[in-house]
Write a structure and sequence with these properties.
The structure is a homodimer. Chain A has about 650 residues and is α+β, with helices and mostly antiparallel strands. Chain A has 18 helices and 23 strands. In chain A, the strands form three sheets. Chain A has a seven-stranded antiparallel β-sheet with strand order 1-5-6-7-13-9-10. In chain A, strands 15-16-21-19-17-23 form a six-stranded mixed barrel. Chain A has a five-stranded mixed β-sheet with strand order 3-4-8-12-11, with no helix packed on it. The interface between A and B is large, with 64 and 64 residues.
């Protein structure tokens, strides 16, 4: 283990980031104080109001500590892994002996559940011991392994404890003996991508090539003919795990396995699977220098963000398959936009930033983070949206079966609890998303208050970022190199600003002149105490959608900085569909201290037609008179915290001269 | 049979109507020349491009003429019945010895398939002989019987042949021995209403009270506790016919059996089932004078037409259950609006007109007929829509699974072929929907050229209607009483006109003064050769939807007379969502002789934003410039006849002063 310790120390020396931010600090605190303990209880089936998770119980049964039946989904193990991963990140922010003790106990249990040959999966160990690796399409064995690898890396990096790491290295050795190009091994891959990106993390920690090779194998093999998932399906009598019965066909595009990954150019299928895969592809493209893989990543990124992404950073237009549909098909009310998919998009964005310093990746990361992801969690940390709609009519959610998947209020811990632990692990590892380094240049991707220690151009640098995001656009960076040194500091100029100001020690910088792929790059000899001041006008503005995006045609959305806004019934009378914004009305902004922890509220001139003005039946030749109205918009991420009511992001816009 | 012959002669003496109309004549001819022969071939599995129907084959197997397995849906028999019913109506328009021979052969076969005890249903006879009457919820035994009863009545009335009538009287006697309030009989009813309205027809033909009593029993029993459908479901081990497996719950509101019919006030569940039931309820309310039943009918009618009906007369907002959802939930693109449901609404409207002479029932009848129903059939009579959307993006129909049920082009004869034969039987019996008589007053409900013979106030009257609907609003009625006589003639003033002119023998009538429940009632001493001229301004106009109808908010639809218009890609460039209508633009109208048999086309000023004017990515702060454009609208019923493309009925409306 001394080798890892060295690697780890080297990594630590390269870069550490500690978030110190008023806005995000509160959410990270919420995860630490509430979400992680709550999830711990939930995993142990001790949350009275939630369906039992069975997750810990499954491990206890597999470990032989107790008798019982497997419970929960086939991938239930992954909830334990995601919790451990979040604990790892949390402990790296702040040591907590009691939490560490809980985690150590869970890891002890996981170790006991591991089989002699290294195999680890409670579903197959308890329920179908003879059927390991016979249904990769449905059964998530490698997916669960992947999450435990991520947890092992995070926990080791936080605590230096290697027990889980060793468990997972044994599991990976076992996997390596089952899958691979060699004669007699399975030429397969998981139905749900995850292990690919996890193996890269394991490689980055340990430096062991075999992990990178295995990850590449899974990526390269996917979509090759003869198709593994189809062959496997035929072999098991076309049985699907979900019903236990035979199916007439199998759609491997759902698993992004219809064509080889390097030939893919359109995001298809289950959206979480897709972005987890693209994340690994971008990792491998960077680590192996594989140009065809890189261009595939760029194509897929462009397809998503130019044609298949909601303004909130949500992806996945249908709940049927939780999937992408096709270009410009982004319905606001039958939407899926799963929380996990946006988290996966953030993973993908981070890898693209590591590959190429282009601010458009960070723009999307910021969009998904401040809107779809942040909005998924209630202010109490105990209620979540899986589906993040852009338009909600609560009665339709209950009375129109095509919208049953959309909820108007966040739900407690679910039967399939993928999203809440995913939010927890993202927020506790937010420090990893703020900066990237290319050469001797530091790129700031997110404006989140933080303390950075890194090395740039051979100089050790401490950098303190102070940010008043998302309410104000003033950011200061205090640069403290160990000695004077020349290196670059690149500040992302978000695509949502029209002008930006930068001063270094009070002196204006030519922003336009220094702009490169969306970053203002300041290269100079830095000395201790240098201060960069970035001013981004944080004002409300209108956004329009591409004319091909039919659902948003002739409508406008309101943004303020990175925040997308929405109308809610709590502030505007229903039906919200009666409201239109005036094209020429000014926006006014007030900071409402009382609104759910404080938030900037936007008011705009508009008009509405009411039932009271309507004289006809269902249809009439007479149009109802419209009345001027002040429209109130609140940040999207806060929606649904004030009871059930209508909500909408896209609002018709009309000339006020009626 | 002499008794029936008398009844029939009496009925014939009361009223005969022969359609002689340029517009509808063409469709009736199409049904006679093409649809009925095509359906005959389809029933015999001789249409190469269609899936085999199995319908006739099932009867041949049940009759012992050949060996084989039952094929098709559990209600496949009803396709034969609906065809026979349409043949009956067709023969009453024009005798056709060859068609009559075909029908007689089919009836012969049906008779051979009837069991000793009168039971008639090929599914149970062939496949589950021991399970008769054990799954009323799913298996449509009474539904199929109902359709054969309707066919028997129609065929007898057209030809005087009573073979099918006797077959069905035996079947009804058998049903009467199984169902009823008496000890030992089933207290049940069918999962799919239909026999209730059919038994009323049988009663009207024969005058036999027992048929009316049985119909009332089914209606009265529905929704009573203990719930028959639930009990039956429990009894058969909760098995559903559709999958052969147990279900965890049963939703009897789908069958309108959750509460007694007299307590129902909101249309729920499967929409065809619903309107078939309401039709029978209105029949029974009239024939029995049951006031609670009548008020229930009015409540349900009002709920549908004030809150749950598309502008095209379509009903059913979701394909999941082919069902109503809830008030004001009328999405245009995920719509169901099944053809059969609109036909059922027309049935219901006819019964409400027989109950009460109120033009609002005829207004809806006209709306459904000229739009949803007429639009369901292709100009070749061989292709049909089941689902009649108000907004279509063809790519979404194929690539978004939430819209797979919506088609952008009419399909051939389907696996579940309910709609095409329903259209055939409606169009061939259109003569039954034009007039109703209350007391000595004749009510004109539809302006369709026709020859009427009836008796009013004791005077035999012949009346010739000449109509240029739907293209022009001029209607003349030539009244020819056998001798001078006083009686009333009531002309419906459609809700879509703002003014109407009536002249009798050239002399103006005070329309407003004579208006009663939507009809201008003209009462006078009529003499042979009197001519009534009705002039309804047939011009294009805008229609707006109730503010609570969120899907149509801030949009307008174009109507011209009874016809709803739509935009199609064939006339306007895609995406149609880019188009808005100017609030103050005039409409221009031209009659395009070349357009699918000739149609009035409406042009309007509008504006559009194009991809070429768009400089951003998916989202942008900069709005694209709009350009003025001439918008072309065509009658909705013609949509989808010029290849696959976008279509929409509701168009955003904006002030032209940008």
């Amino acid at each position: 283990m001394s080798k890892f310790a060295e690697v780890r120390q080297a990594a630590a020396a390269t870069q550490t980031v500690a978030v110190q931010d008023e806005f995000w600090g509160r959410y990270i605190q919420l995860v630490q104080d509430t979400v992680i303990p709550y999830q711990y209880e939930a995993l142990h089936d001790r949350v009275a109001e939630a369906e039992p998770s069975h997750a810990i119980a499954n491990f206890e049964i597999a470990a032989g500590r107790r008798k019982g039946e497997f419970g929960g989904m086939v991938f239930q193990d992954s909830d334990v892994a995601k919790w451990l991963e979040a604990v790892g990140y949390s402990l790296s922010i702040k040591r907590d002996p009691e939490l560490e003790r809980q985690a150590d106990e869970v890891i002890e249990l996981v170790g006991e559940a591991q089989q002699e040959d290294g195999y680890l999966n409670t579903y197959f160990t308890i329920k179908e011991p003879g059927n390991r690796w016979t249904n990769l399409q449905d059964c998530h064995e490698l997916y669960c392994a992947g999450h435990f690898i991520e947890a092992a890396v995070a926990y080791y990096e936080a605590t230096g404890k290697d027990k889980l790491l060793n468990i997972m290295r044994r599991m990976v050795d076992h996997i390596d003996s089952v899958f691979g190009p060699e004669e007699g091994k399975l030429k397969g891959y998981d139905g749900h991508q995850e292990i690919e990106l996890a193996l890269v993390k394991l490689y980055r920690l340990t430096g062991e090539e075999k992990y990178l090779k295995l990850s590449s194998f899974f990526i390269d093999q996917r979509g090759q003919e003869p198709n593994f998932l189809r062959q496997e399906w035929e072999k098991r009598g076309r049985i699907t795990h979900w019903t236990g019965t035979a199916t007439s066909s199998v759609d491997v595009s759902y698993n992004q396995a219809d064509i080889p990954v390097r030939e893919q150019s359109v995001a298809v299928g289950h959206s979480v699977r897709a972005v987890y895969m693209y994340t690994a592809m971008a990792d491998l493209a960077r680590l192996t220098g594989d140009e065809t893989l890189r261009t595939a990543c760029v194509r897929l990124w462009d397809n998503i963000t130019d044609k298949q992404m909601y303004i909130t950073g949500g992806i996945g237009s249908t709940h049927l398959g939780e999937a992408f549909t096709f270009d410009y098909d982004l319905p606001n009310d039958t939407v899926y936009a799963e929380t996990c998919a946006s988290i996966g998009l953030i993973f993908f964005a981070k890898r693209m930033l590591e590959l190429t310093p282009d601010a458009r990746y960070a723009d999307v990361m910021e969009r998904a983070l401040y809107n779809n992801v942040l909005g998924s969690m209630a202010q109490d940390g105990k209620h979540y949206f899986y589906v993040n709609p852009l338009e909600v009519w609560p009665q339709a959610c209950s009375c129109n079966p095509g919208k049953h998947h959309v909820k108007s209020e966040r739900q407690g811990w679910f039967g399939c609890a993928c999203c809440p632990p995913n939010v927890a692990r993202l927020l506790t590892s937010l420090n990893q998303y703020i900066y990237t380094v290319h050469g001797d240049t530091l790129y700031t991707n997110l404006y989140i208050g933080s303390e950075l220690k890194t090395t740039l151009g051979g100089t050790e640098v401490a950098l303190t970022q102070r940010s008043s995001f998302p309410w104000n656009g003033t950011v200061t960076l205090q640069v403290n190199p160990a000695g004077n040194g020349e290196f670059g500091i690149a500040l992302r100029i978000p695509s949502w600003v029209e002008t930006a100001e930068i001063r270094v020690n009070g002196e204006a910088v030519d922003v336009t002149g220094s702009l490169k792929q969306g970053y203002a790059v300041i290269r100079r000899e830095w000395k201790a105490g240098d201060v960069i001041e970035l001013t981004l006008p944080m004002e409300a503005y209108r956004v329009y959608a591409h004319p091909n995006l039919r659902a948003d045609a002739q409508k406008t959305a309101i943004q303020r900085g990175p925040l997308v806004y929405c109308l809610e019934a709590a502030d505007n009378s229903e039906p919200l569909s009666s409201i239109s914004l005036s094209t020429d009305g000014e926006f006014t902004e007030v900071f409402d201290e009382e609104l759910l922890g404080g938030a900037a509220v936007v008011r705009a001139a508009g008009s509405r037609v009411d039932e009271q003005n309507w004289n006809g039946g269902l249809y009439s030749r007479t149009k109802a008179a419209e009345q001027p109205v002040v429209v109130t918009a609140v940040p999207y991420y806060l929606w649904g915290n004030r009871g059930s009511g209508e909500m909408k992001v896209w609002i018709p816009e009309r000339s006020s001269s009626k």
